[in-house]
Specification:
By secondary structure, the chain is α/β, with parallel strands linked by helices. It contains 10 helices and 8 strands. The protein has 2 domains: 226 residues, TIM Barrel, CATH 3.20.20; 47 residues, no CATH class. A 6-stranded parallel beta sheet has the order 3-4-5-6-7-8, covered by helices on one side. Strands 1-2 form a two-stranded antiparallel sheet. The N and C termini lie far apart (43 Å).
């Protein structure tokens, strides 16, 4: 079993197949001309398979393929099929633009879960996590958060309808507060998604799943207020551990109140020093 310096066990391996991508998102690609790593310098298919086997022997049970965009690699199908023979849960992160070319391969490989990225939270958090209040030092949302929620729902529905046999995790529900479970139930019923994924909402309301099953009604006083404090802590790096522990400061002042003060002080001091 693989353990880190904090004695935590790890059974999850991410493998980047390439740094290349067929999109040129401003927050990811540099403005100047960029030379991607030549194919001859990338790990070859047999090398990826060999390394994956070693990690499986060390206890890895889940492998996620990423990029760049992993599906632009010419031998991506070969790699996916090779790794599918290992005793692991094989998943994929993709921008979905080439998904239609690889659907037969993904089905043959037994891939049943896809993560489709709408952006990255460091550059455009309003896309991935519609919010009311930004992190300190970050921009105000350029659109009403409900437009971001609708974008999530629409994108998820298009992917789910195109690939009904694949499990698709829909996101973007947290901003809806106590209405989120009803929106999720409707999307599942209408086959617009397979699952509803929650991130911030779970930090603010840890017993949300139990309350949903028992009462089918959430307490609006307990739901996430999308104030971005949890992500602020994750992005605050002035800490001996590399980042601050992340939780929900508004609902857990005893646990995170002092941590939040330390993070703010460190970031403000760093900003003055620039």
């Amino acid at each position: 079993m693989i353990k880190d310096s904090f004695n935590r066990e790890h059974d999850y391996l991410r493998i980047s197949l390439t740094d290349n991508c067929n999109l040129r998102c401003f927050y990811c690609m540099p403005e100047e001309e960029y030379e991607f790593t030549p194919a001859s310098q990338l790990m070859q298919a047999h090398e990826i398979e060999a390394i994956a086997k070693i990690f499986v022997q060390m206890g890895v049970r889940k492998i996620r393929l990423t990029g760049g965009e992993p599906l632009v690699r010419k031998d991506a199908g070969e790699i996916i099929l090779a790794l599918s023979k290992l005793p692991v849960n094989l998943t994929l992160t993709t921008n979905a633009t080439r998904l239609h070319h690889f659907l037969p391969v993904l089905q043959q490989a037994g891939v049943r879960l896809l993560n489709v990225s709408l952006g990255i939270p460091y550059a455009n958090p309003h896309l991935g996590r519609p919010f009311d209040k930004p992190n300190e030092g970050y921009y105000e949302t350029p659109e009403h958060p409900l437009l971001g929620v609708a974008r999530h729902f629409s994108a998820t529905a298009q992917i789910q309808n195109a690939y009904p046999d694949l499990a698709v995790v829909g996101t973007g529900y947290t901003w809806l507060r106590h209405f989120l479970i009803h929106a999720a139930a409707a999307n599942v019923k209408l086959h617009r998604t397979t699952l509803a994924g929650l991130g911030r909402a779970a930090l603010a309301y840890p017993d949300l799943p139990r309350v949903t099953l028992e009462k089918a009604d959430l307490n609006p006083l307990h739901t996430c207020k999308t104030l971005s404090y949890c992500t602020y802590l994750m992005r605050s790096k002035k800490n001996d551990l590399g980042q601050f522990p992340a939780g929900c400061p508004p609902f857990d002042k005893e646990g995170y109140g002092e941590v939040m003060k330390q993070a703010r002080a460190g970031n403000r001091a760093a900003a003055k020093g620039q």
